[in-house]
Amino acid sequence: MNREQFLPKDARQVVIEIRAAKDCISRSEFALMNGDLESAELFARDFIKSVRVLKKLEQEREEIDAMISNLEFLLKNKKAGMVVLVK
Predict the structure, then answer these.
(1) pLDDT(24) > 70
(2) Where are the domains positioned within the chain?
(3) Rounded percentage of the chain residues whose pLDDT exceeds 70
């Protein structure tokens, strides 16, 4: 994982999800080793949830990057008459 995979505004959420994922994997493994299959499965599900959030945040970054790339292309080729930036 690296910072460039996510938008700067999402940095805090990324850290939270990474920590949660690591914790869930550790707890799932511990439960598994102690024969608590139900808890192991629940922690594994929570791990997957954190990974899905990270994938969603990464996808948002990719979509923004694609929009910026398209906008730069249009501006470079003078195909855009007017550009409005929305924050």
Answers:
(1) yes
(2) 3-76
(3) 90
